[in-house]
Design goal:
The chain is α+β, with helices and mostly antiparallel strands. The chain is 55% helix and 18% strand. The two termini are 56 Å apart.
Length: 412
């Protein structure tokens, strides 16, 4: 707003002024002075031709004095008007600056609140969509975006029926209309699908009211769950266990999330925010298979010594992404914990640390044995095969066991 005002003022300042405006300004300054001089000259001629009669002198002097008083009064009034308008202009500029600052603060607060609201809605283990009073989609959370496979910008302003499909919208159109009329209602549907699995779909319609009680929008929350159901053979057929249909390689994301429960949905929402992964489990397994992790070391140094000798290192792990970006552990460790991949991650770290130590020792003639501090997950300590694998890697590489120092958090 402030920039627009300044640009308008500069444009007005650059606008060429008409010629008559300059002539008028010159005339307003010069004409009163010339008029006063002319009146004075006429009075002098009049006094002279009246043979210096004192009556005429006094009369004409009074006329001249009155003219001077009127001219001074006019000039004083003009100066007072200019001062008053200058003060008003300064007040208007100050008020405009305050309004511009308030507008910027309000805009910043709006964006901050919108970001917090988006983060909160993405953490909800339900699919959430918001439509305005006209039935057009205005916002949706991460779970709903995953189910649709689209971004907010791709569906913003579109009718709800066009976003979710005409078949599904035909079943809930009446409930949507009730919600937009101000009525809180729910819709629930159960059906059996292949493989002896039952699907339960529940929709909750929550009207959004303004301060006057008028409906301005509608929140639609969708919960999709699956549960095993008994399989009954048709009459006249042999009773046998129904073979479970193989899951296709690519299934709707919302169903896969529903099978894993709300925790998985929450994890996928957070992972999408932090890393942009659509399928965090598959992405992490792919990273382990393709050795996409990178190991770093942090040296421990004795500050009492200045010789720079350092034989203890703490091992840090990062995930290599595209364009040389490194994903911190806080983004992929929750995924490893959720899908029981922590022991696999520890195995990868220990195996690569031993391999690096062996390679470094062979390439460095005067190599001094170092010690590496590694943080282990509790699952690795409870896995008997993990210790056997570590012992086997050490024996095969000829690395002494004392190079490894395993750390476990106290609360674990």
């Amino acid at each position: 707003m402030e920039n627009e005002t300044q640009s308008q003022q500069s444009a007005i300042a650059r606008r060429p002024q008409p010629v008559w405006a300059g002539v008028r300004a010159f005339a307003m300054k010069v004409v009163p002075a010339l008029a006063t001089i002319v009146i004075g000259v006429l009075l002098l001629f009049t006094i002279y031709f009246t043979l210096l009669d004192w009556q005429w002198i006094i009369f004409l002097s009074g006329v001249l004095f009155a003219a001077l008083i009127a001219l001074a009064s006019r000039a004083s009034h003009a100066e007072w008007t200019i001062r008053r308008r200058t003060v008003q202009l300064a007040q208007m500029k100050e008020r405009l600056a305050q309004e511009a600052a308030a507008h910027r603060n309000s805009e910043s607060a709006y964006h901050a609140t919108a970001d917090k609201l988006q983060l909160l809605s993405d953490a909800i283990p339900l699919m959430l969509v918001y439509v305005d009073a006209g039935g057009h989609v205005r916002a949706l959370n991460s779970a709903f975006r995953i189910w649709l496979g689209k971004r907010n910008s791709q569906v913003d302003g579109l009718p709800l029926g066009e976003v979710i499909g005409s078949e599904l919208y035909a079943q809930i159109a009446g409930d949507v209309a009730k919600g937009l009329s101000g009525t809180l209602n729910t819709f629930e549907r159960k059906r059996s699908i292949d493989g002896g699995v039952g699907e339960r779909l529940q929709l909750i319609y929550l009207p959004h009211l303004d301060a006057l009680g008028k409906v301005v929008g509608l929140y639609v929350m969708v919960s999709e769950q699956r549960e095993e159901i008994p399989w009954v053979a048709p009459t006249g057929e042999a009773t046998a266990a129904a073979p479970a249909a193989e899951a296709p390689e690519s299934v709707p994301t919302a169903r896969a999330l529903a099978e894993s429960g709300g925790q998985t949905l929450y994890l996928r929402s957070v992972s999408e925010q932090l890393t942009g992964w659509d399928n965090p489990e598959q992405r992490l397994r792919q990273a382990l298979q393709n050795d996409e992790f990178r190991l770093f070391c942090q040296r421990f140094r004795d500050l009492r010594k200045d010789d720079g000798d350092c034989s203890l290192y703490e091992i840090l792990i990062r995930l290599q992404e595209e364009e040389s970006n490194l994903t911190p552990p806080g983004a992929f460790i929750p995924v490893a914990e959720e899908f029981d991949m922590t022991t696999d991650l520890d195995r990868w770290v220990v195996r690569n640390v031993i391999a690096w130590h062996c390679s470094k020792r062979q390439r460095t003639p005067h190599w001094r044995t170092a010690m590496y501090s590694l943080n282990l997950f509790p699952s690795s300590m409870l896995d008997r095969s993990f210790t056997g694998d570590v012992r086997r890697w050490l024996d095969e590489s000829g690395v002494p066991p004392e190079v490894l120092c395993f750390e476990v958090a106290e609360d674990e």
